[in-house]
Design goal:
Blueprint: H1 5-15, H2 24-30, E1 42-43, H3 44-63, H4 67-83, E2 87-88, H5 93-120
Antiparallel strand pairs: 1-2
């Protein structure tokens, strides 16, 4: 059976444990749009989807983590944000972008340090 590069990456990324899911309180803090301003805000998932490639590229560049794992992390953050019905205030786009980028990078680094610790165990 012939295997494609896409099959290889799909299999490889499915074997890698998903980075710890983002905590609801952290996401709610990042996208903390006051109730009176929710009408002028868009779904956080739209904001996250719009910036996913840039965030993933920068996290991969600065951490050395595999891009498919970062993509799975960001997709899990998007999915959880949708479930929580979080909203992004367009007047605070740069703040949201900085916070979610740093937060996702911290989750990625935490995951990498856990994986490194596991590989050292006998």
């Amino acid at each position: 059976m012939d295997s494609t590069v896409a099959d290889f990456y799909r299999q490889t990324t499915e074997e890698i444990p998903l980075v710890d899911l983002a905590h609801d309180t952290d996401l709610a803090d990042i996208f903390n749009v006051p109730k009176r301003q929710k009408n002028g805000a868009r779904p956080a998932t739209d904001f996250l989807r719009e910036h996913r490639k840039t965030i993933a590229d920068k996290i991969a560049y600065w951490t050395g983590m595999q891009r498919p794992v970062i993509k799975r992390l960001l997709e899990s953050i998007e999915n959880r944000s949708a479930e929580l019905k979080l909203r992004a205030d367009s007047r605070r786009d740069s703040e949201h972008l900085a916070e979610i980028s740093v937060y996702a990078a911290a989750l990625a680094m935490n995951h990498m340090s856990k994986e490194k610790g596991r590989s050292k165990q006998p």
